[in-house]
Amino acid sequence: MKYMKEAEPSYTLSTVMEEAARCLLCHDAPCSKMCPAKTDPARFIRSVRFRNFKGAAETIRENNAMGAICARVCPTERYCELGCTRSGIDKPIDIGGIQRFVTDFEQQAQMDILHKGKPNGMKVAIVGSGPSGLQTAVTLLELGYAVDIYEKNAKAGGYLTYGIPEYRLPTDIVDFEIKRITNMGAEIKYNTTIGEDITMAQLKQNYQAVVLAIGSREAKSLPLFEGNPYMETAVSFLARAKMHHGQLELPDNVLVIGGGDVAMDVATTLKRLDVKHVTDVVYEEFNEFKASQKELLGTQAHGVTIIDGYVPTAADGKKVTFKHRHIDSQLVIEADKIILAVGQKANAAGLGLQLNHDEVPFTGYQAAPQVFVTGDIAQGDKTVVWSVKRGKEVATEIDQVLGGNQHD
């Protein structure tokens, strides 16, 4: 099935060496400066050039515990590849592709790179097991803390597990990353909701620090679709597709509303599930698209019809009416299924946390005594690589506040 097959083929030994040979080996490389997680692509590409794949894997892992995941889903054109000096000659180095080859090598060689530090006698609770929570756990474990992760779902990973389609991020890659972290000593408590199964007060009593690493997992909707039996949110659809391995019954005519990466995931997934007619209507015009260029081009390559600049103004069952934002134009589309991809929001119920537009209304990570925040609710980009950045930074801040290195 196309849904289960990775969209892009991985490099072979010969092709990865060919791509790495294009690197100019810049001194003070701009690509490394542009990576939010400081994964240091210049250094690991240099290792690949000398066939030191073990060294390349160590560079990636020591800086980015989500290295195999970021290799597949990071919008590299916005970060490391944007800074690539090679762009002035022809095109940037395929940094994500090289990183994927190295992390695949690491998995196949069963390398064991990440290790827990000497115990310092302190424990930290992490609420949420998305990428930021997982990276926070790794960094704290390396610093000697004991870590328990509280996850409300039956599986860890957050949107990595329940949202990103299989063809972009295979489940076995996510499971392997999580297994690596539990092998370090993190304990994940599944099916546990804070405020219901355990309270924040109990967490603060049992741990020296509590990290709220909740993601934006709840779908936003539009009032005009309330109660519409033909409508499903993107969050729901992508989760169903992933949990059922693409085995879904779908009509031949589906309308998608939204223009971000999630909307592109929905539209491409529908095509990979052999839906004949997929139309995506987008609020933004093409020159202001929110989706990454890679995601947009991939969606177009699958044959999705994308109509830009239109806002939904009415919905009557299967029929949706749109009006253009800038010109006197109206559009009516009738579809057997409507999928809304108009944003996501965080749910901070039971956490004692006030959010402003789904973010904490302050910079930094400490929200209250013993309580820290990271992930989507912290300020910054909502990408996996930024989640890694925030996870590393909040762990460092916790260590500075608790003085963990003084308890060896």
On the 0 to 100 scale, the average pLDDT is 95
Report the oligomer. Answer: single chain
CATH C-level category of the largest domain: Alpha Beta
- The helix tally amounts to 14
Note poorly predicted spans: none
- What is the CATH homologous superfamily assignment of the largest domain? FAD/NAD(P)-binding domain
Form type: globular
Catalytic activity: 5,6-dihydrouracil + NAD(+) = uracil + NADH + H(+); 5,6-dihydrothymine + NAD(+) = thymine + NADH + H(+)
Keywords: Oxidoreductase
InterPro entries: DPD_II, FAD/NAD-bd_sf, FAD/NAD-binding_dom, Helical_ferredxn
Organism: Loigolactobacillus rennini DSM 20253
Characteristic key phrases:
five-stranded parallel sheet, FAD/NAD(P)-binding domain, 16 strands, 408 residues, alpha/beta, Fumarate Reductase Iron-sulfur Protein, Chain B, domain 2, 3 domains, six-stranded mixed sheet
How would you explain this protein's 3D organization?
- Residues 122-384 form the FAD/NAD(P)-binding domain.
- With 408 residues, this protein is α/β, with parallel strands linked by helices.
- The chain folds into three domains: 2-108, Fumarate Reductase Iron-sulfur Protein, Chain B, domain 2, CATH 1.10.1060; 123-217 and 346-406, FAD/NAD(P)-binding domain, CATH 3.50.50.60; 219-344, FAD/NAD(P)-binding domain, CATH 3.50.50.
- Helices cover 34% and strands 16% of the residues.
- It is built from 14 helices and 16 strands.
- The protein has helices at 13-20, 30-33, 41-49, 53-63, 67-73, 95-108, 131-142, 159-162, 171-184, 200-206, 234-243, 261-272, 293-301, 384-402, and strands at residues 123-127, 146-150, 187-189, 209-212, 218-219, 231-233, 253-257, 277-282, 305-308, 310-316, 319-324, 330-334, 337-340, 344-345, 366-368, 371-373.
- The strands form four sheets. The protein has a six-stranded mixed β-sheet with strand order 3-2-1-4-16-15, sandwiched between helices. Strands 6-13-7-8-9 form a five-stranded parallel β-sheet.
- β15 (366-368) and β16 form a beta hairpin.
- The longest helix has 19 residues, at 384-402.
- The radius of gyration is 22 Å and the shape is globular.
